[in-house]
Specification:
By secondary structure, the chain is an alpha/beta fold. Helix content is 23%, strand content 17%. Strands 1-2-3 form a three-stranded parallel sheet, with no helix packed on it. Helix 3 links the parallel strand 2 and strand 3. The protein is globular.
Length: 96
Amino acid sequence: MKKEYIIIGADFAPIENDGVRIAQGKQEEVLDADIAKIISDADFSVFNMEAPIEYEDMIPLKKDGPRLFIPGGAEKIYQGIGVDLLLLANNHIMDW
């Protein structure tokens, strides 16, 4: 009997240099191939994206603490590893 499994990934955000490498198609430099395979082999996977995706003319909000964003193009990693459901519920959504 085949075992079924679900992957739940919280607060995964390819920010800064990691995001740039992913956007350039260098996912293997950021995410271990064995981990990517485990995720893609899951029967269902859900991840929470910990920051908004970069967009043109971003204006930073005045706040204490870091302003996070995922470089444009880096969001492709979620599709590339077969994430079934991607959430955007985090405390950085209004940083920009």
